[in-house]
Amino acid sequence: MKILIVEDEQGLRENMLTYLSEDKNVCESCTNLADALSKLGLYNYDFVLLDIGLPDGEGFEVLRYLKDKMREEAVIIISARNSLDDRIKGLNIGADDYLTKPFHLSELKARIVAVFRRKSTNSSNKLVFNEIVINLMERTVTINETEIILTRKEFDMLLYFVANKGKVISKTALAEHLWGDEMDMHDNFDFIYSHIKNLRKKILDFTTNDYLKSIYGIGYKFTDK
Amino acid sequence: MKILIVEDEQGLRENMLTYLSEDKNVCESCTNLADALSKLGLYNYDFVLLDIGLPDGEGFEVLRYLKDKMREEAVIIISARNSLDDRIKGLNIGADDYLTKPFHLSELKARIVAVFRRKSTNSSNKLVFNEIVINLMERTVTINETEIILTRKEFDMLLYFVANKGKVISKTALAEHLWGDEMDMHDNFDFIYSHIKNLRKKILDFTTNDYLKSIYGIGYKFTDK
DNA sequence: AGTTAAATTCAGTTTTACTTCAGTTTTACC
DNA sequence: GGTAAAACTGAAGTAAAACTGAATTTAACT
């Protein structure tokens, strides 16, 4: 595989370089943001190992660049900080995994293999909204890495909401999406109230943000912010 | 949304009226060409659902009228004939969609939504007036990047004002747009005063410009400058 | 079949927006 | 400036909408 290593610490960079090269990988490295973006502009890689704290900016820029250009490179973030925010931010912008310094080179290799397998089986089809991660293939939802168990209706409901993130969804539109338009619910939204309530409860058990806002008289809105 | 239904078949007309009213639309209806033109002369609508075969003429006249006056109303033609000619003729004169009887009311609604989305996405979803940004899909209003929470009536009111930016809106026109013409408010504008007051207050909490000017004895005017 | 979970209904409660009202301020016109 | 109509204001009442917990019905899975 062709791997780009973006890391300013000389020792770590050279260790990764030699260690990964032993496994028949083609490795290149650079020490700052500008060089990384320039290299990515010239070549395609299979993997980018990305330090966040770089001398000329944050590694997130690379992620944004790749996401913006719809590039296929797998990215593993390598960061000194172990904050949840950075981890989630990285995964949000499209990173595939996250590694905190210090780490064993063997762990790095294991993660590369794992990410590669996940990407090639194409089951990494996930939607990320802050601490909420929705895996479409597995039909699972995790919040802060703990899975919440949703029923069919709850999951479909959540999907419809996130598919229309930010937009206001009327209760009738919701009903039509979930039950089809044959359903006549003359002014009876009890079951919607019920499902909304249950979905909200499950979400609020693991995060304090209210993602599902009510718009009085209009409907509901799923929001990121 | 404010919808005008032009349909001479009593059953169908009443069905559409009740069905669409359920979705918080303000609906009015008439049964012939003359009334339709008269109503369009008096009020603005968001949508016109237009039957072609009317007792006193062809619905195409309405389309010509709207086109001639450069009106913004979206038009969905409803016709018993399924001839390609009519369809083409209608779309040529400026109809946005075409529906052949008989049809399901759910299909009508789906088309209304689709036409509305097409119309609104074509003309950049967001309305911007200096520091005020109105997002129709999200049903949000931000002033200097902070969101202000508006109720239904406040939001609809604001929309009506900005749609008629610079023009003076009489209180009766405002009342008719927001409540439909069934509402009789014999010289009692208390609720308008109330809503205006609340809307103004919310706006003035975040900007010092008075966008909503009162024209004594006449009405109100939303202005940019 | 029987068991469990999910979907829906129900009745009672809380919340919210809309309207009304009474009192005050502003405006146009004499 | 005085006056009456028009416009505004804060607060209170009211009905609709939304929410809730639990009960019931329905569907799903051995």
UniProtKB/TrEMBL annotation, chains A, B:
One of its GO terms (molecular function) is phosphorelay response regulator activity. It comes from Mucilaginibacter glaciei. Residues 124-224 bind DNA. Transmembrane segments: none annotated. The modification 4-aspartylphosphate is found at D51. Residues 2-116 form the Response regulatory domain. GO terms for biological process: regulation of DNA-templated transcription. PANTHER family: REGULATOR OF RPOS. Residues 124-224 form the OmpR/PhoB-type domain. It comes from the Bacteria. This is Response regulator transcription factor. Keywords: DNA-binding, Phosphoprotein, Transcription, Transcription regulation, Two-component regulatory system. GO terms for cellular component: cytosol; protein-DNA complex. It holds the Pfam family Response_reg. Coiled coil: none annotated.
